[in-house]
Design goal:
This protein has 60 residues and is of the alpha+beta class. The chain contains 2 helices and 2 strands. Strands 1-2 form a two-stranded antiparallel sheet. This is DUF7836 domain-containing protein.
Length: 60
Amino acid sequence: MSEIDVQLTCPDCDKTFSIGPDDILEKESISCPDCGCPLPEEELRYLKIAIDYMKEKKTH
């Protein structure tokens, strides 16, 4: 899955940034690199579930 990046847009400063799926799975939190606004824990949890699901589908 390293061939894709997840694009996120900060709701506070509108900065768009990308992060690799493996980096997302390893992190305890994700914040905007410009203003530090954190991604809510629940959204990060759902994002990790979606990445795990895509990885599982790719191996089958």
